[in-house]
Design goal:
heterodimer; A: alpha/beta; D-Maltodextrin-Binding Protein, domain 2; 2 domains; 18 helices; 15 strands; 14% strand; B: mainly alpha; 14 helices; disordered N terminus; cell membrane (chain B); transmembrane helix (chain B); MetI-like (chain B); transmembrane (chain B); MetI-like_sf (chain B)
């Protein structure tokens, strides 16, 4: 009979073995005793996660003095909660990824440390190596708080074969870009005739983030921008607001696009080649390529006159450390510069590299369809700056609550505008909860 | 949901044993005082680890929470100055807080009733001696073993308005499709359906165990007296199941009031005004909005609500016991 009782000796032996395993797990073969470990938190999973890991491996392989150890956390609110708690405790990782749009909400709370422009510039990273919209999205109160790795705009993927059959391609084989809504709707109906299902895949039902991405693109195409002045009231153009919602309502007619498309069903539909165009983020491109869709990509056409695309950036930030190790911080600058300089690989994941020397390379020009929407970098619009806006914030969810019904039903636009105004104004009247007494700003 | 099982095992009353006396209450030896002191020491020694954990993880957070609720403490460490009952008055005048409480109570009603009735019906059917009992027991109980993340994923796809099975079934019987999780007032019902499917197995098991405890003798005697199947059901089975029904009701109401994980996951973190449960509102206030003080205040308002439900149930159950 085997004795399964637990005695003191077996517990001790087990404990020692576990401790040994833990010690072993802490080391990787490449590390020596002088190696500094740099903790790096990010929220990129799936194809993006694999691509970023490839970049990190490259950096680790070329430096023996430090080792970047990434930790992947769940996207959205949980990530930002953990990051802010780590920064609040002053024991944050050396480096983290944030959406640029979330940075302004973090700065007043003292959760981030600013980047030193001189150190960056010595490594070849400065204002001239980014487009204006990307650089200015990284600056808060005159200081640089984030260094963008990419821009990931909301774009149009298209199925080259289906669109060709529908006569929606130009002589170069690129998607036509109608400059008014009516022509675009007509084009989508033609495509729907080819697929027998829908012309366009766009999932928005129950998803404030998706609604906001397209809405703000359309709103800004009117030549308008929303501004959320702290302690003031929102400035929003009524006509552009309503015209954008009307556009979205017309899309969801059951022919152009599904009446009740969710983000998942839209992805599934385009991947199954049952539609010709897909309004989505650039990050969806690799998945479509591996699904075997003959896919092209372009900026969403300027339906209302001005080229404008909603975007956000994955940016590097220095979460606040109460007592930073200067050597580790020095290495962190090196890591960021190295990652930027290797970001051609990141372009393969669909993103537009933020670092201009990469997009100016001939190799990038040969990377299609990525290079076809590279021009979007000059027309990016980020979220209106406020402590409550940004990717995965409550603000976008609430926006979806307010405009969801009007988009589906095609009525109640005015009430939606009133509700939106009063919602934003009530937030503007509140202090930033990360710094309720304004003592850290 | 699984902590329901844990709390159940701890629910039974422990027999009281006084040190220094035997079970008959007689004095045991002349050195009773010493033995009693030693016994008490031993008792405290055994209690100490539990007491320490209880003080540290229950009592201290409880007090700390009350203190927090009176400040403007931020999750980021900023703030923290005393603001009196401002958080409470803000919460009580906040329509979203009330709608969240309303949603939670509504969810409790629409899940508790079917979860008790369905479990009873399922247990009765299985107990009548259907062939392949093990298969019924297994298939009714199995969903309960799944994690909330798994059931949420399954039901998100079932409820997908374009490609989900739920709308396939509706259109097969000639009904209009519904956006299950994206339509106001329907979303919480959809979450309730998924929850019922997920957790009914546990109540079913409790009922089945109780059914098997009713002596056959009673049914035989009733049969001899000429009682038919229905008569037996209403005069023997249902009354005999009274105590277990009470237990199930209490457990179920408490579990439903705590609604969070499946709702959060099925709504992908962004809930609507008609589906946001109070626990999610607390989470959003504290961990997404960084307002720790405010979130603490709402949790105490919710605490009072649960306390009222608990006291109400105790009174009703005691009343019933006295009746019987």
């Amino acid at each position: 009979m085997i004795d399964t009782r637990i005695n003191r000796r077996s517990v001790l032996a087990g404990g020692l073995a576990a401790a040994g395993m833990a010690a072993l797990a802490g080391c990787t073969p490449a590390q020596s005793s002088q190696t500094t470990t740099l903790q790096f938190w990010h929220l990129l999973s799936g194809g993006d996660g694999v691509a970023l890991q490839g970049l990190i491996d490259q950096v680790n392989a070329s430096h023996s003095e430090f080792h970047v150890r990434p930790t992947v956390l769940a996207w959205g609110a949980p990530y930002y909660t953990k990051l802010s708690m780590a920064g609040a405790g002053g024991r944050a990782p050396e480096l983290a990824v944030m959406h640029s749009s979330r940075v302004p909400g973090y700065v007043p709370g003292g959760l981030l440390d600013p980047w030193d422009l001189e150190r960056l510039s010595a490594l070849g990273v400065d204002e001239s190596t980014f487009t204006e919209p990307v650089w200015s999205s990284s600056v808060v109160d005159g200081q640089l708080y984030s260094v963008a790795l990419d821009a990931h705009p909301f774009i149009a993927l298209y199925n080259t074969e289906i669109c060709e059959e529908a006569g929606a391609l130009d002589s170069d084989g690129r998607l036509l870009r109608p400059d008014n809504p009516e022509d675009f709707f007509e084009m989508c109906r033609e495509i729907a005739g080819v697929t027998g299902a829908h012309g366009l895949s766009y999932g928005f039902i129950g998803d404030g983030m998706q609604m906001w991405r397209l809405f703000y693109t359309l709103y800004c195409q009117h030549g308008e921008r929303m501004t959320f002045p702290e302690g003031g009231t929102v400035e929003v153009d009524e006509d552009a607001f309503i015209a954008s919602l009307e556009f979205m309502h017309t899309l969801a007619d059951g022919e152009i696009t599904a009446e009740r498309g969710t983000i998942d069903s839209a992805i599934a539909e385009f991947a199954a080649q049952r539609s010709g165009i897909h309004f989505t983020g650039v990050w969806e491109l690799p998945a479509m390529q591996s699904a075997g869709v003959p896919v092209g990509a372009t900026m969403i056409p300027p339906f209302f006159g001005e080229e404008a695309v909603y975007a956000d950036s994955h940016s590097f930030v220095l979460p606040h450390q109460a007592d930073p190790d200067e050597q580790a911080r020095e290495y962190t600058y090196t890591v960021v510069a190295d990652l930027l300089k290797n970001s051609l690989t990141w372009a393969e994941a669909g993103h537009i590299p933020a670092y201009l020397p990469i997009t100016e390379k001939p190799e990038y020009a040969q990377l299609t369809p990525q290079s076809n929407y590279a021009a979007a970098a000059d027309h990016l619009v980020y979220d209106p700056v406020a402590w409550f806006t940004g990717s995965g914030s409550n603000f976008v969810q609430q926006f979806g609550q307010i405009v969801g019904n009007p988009i589906v039903s095609g009525s109640g636009y005015e009430e939606a505008l009133t509700r939106f105004r009063s919602y934003v104004n009530s937030l503007l009247a509140q202090p930033n909860p990360a710094d309720p007494q304004g003592e850290r700003s | 949901m699984t902590d329901v099982m844990a709390s159940r095992s701890a629910a039974g009353p422990e027999p009281e044993v006084t040190p220094g006396e035997d079970s008959g209450g007689r004095r045991t030896s002349p050195t009773r005082g010493q033995a009693s002191r030693r016994g008490q020491l031993a008792a405290w020694a055994f209690l100490a680890p539990f007491m320490a954990a209880f003080l540290l993880f229950v009592i201290w957070p409880l007090i700390h929470g009350i203190v927090l609720s009176l400040t403007d403490q931020s999750l980021t460490g900023a703030g923290g100055s005393f603001i009196g009952f401002e958080n409470y008055s803000e919460a009580l005048s906040e329509p979203v807080m009330w709608s969240s409480i309303g949603n939670t109570v509504w969810f409790t009603v629409i899940t508790t009733v079917p979860l008790v009735l369905l479990a009873l019906i399922m247990a009765l059917l299985v107990n009548t001696g259907l062939p392949g009992q093990w298969l019924w027991r297994l298939s009714f109980f199995m969903p309960f073993l799944l994690a909330s993340t798994v059931i949420s994923q399954i039901w998100v796809w079932i409820f997908n308005p374009e490609i989900g099975a739920a709308n396939e079934i509706l259109s097969a019987v000639g009904l209009e499709p519904i956006a299950w999780l994206q339509t106001a007032n329907v979303d919480l019902i959809s979450i309730a359906i998924a929850t019922i499917w997920w957790t009914v197995g546990f109540n079913f098991l409790l009922y089945l165990a109780a059914l098997q405890n009713i002596p056959d003798l009673q049914y035989e005697a009733a049969a001899v007296d000429g009682a038919g199947r229905w008569r037996q059901l209403f005069s023997i089975t249902i009354p005999q199941l009274g105590p277990v029904t009470g237990v199930i009701l209490v457990l179920q109401m408490l579990a439903s009031l705590k609604l969070f994980d499946q709702a959060y996951q099925m709504m992908e973190g962004g809930s609507s005004e008609t589906s946001r449960p109070i626990v999610q509102y607390i989470f959003e206030a504290g961990f997404v909005g960084y307002r720790f003080g405010y979130a603490s205040a709402i949790s105490y308002i919710f605490f009072v609500l649960i306390l009222i439900v608990g006291i109400f149930q105790m009174v009703v159950l005691r009343h019933r016991k006295a009746d019987s």
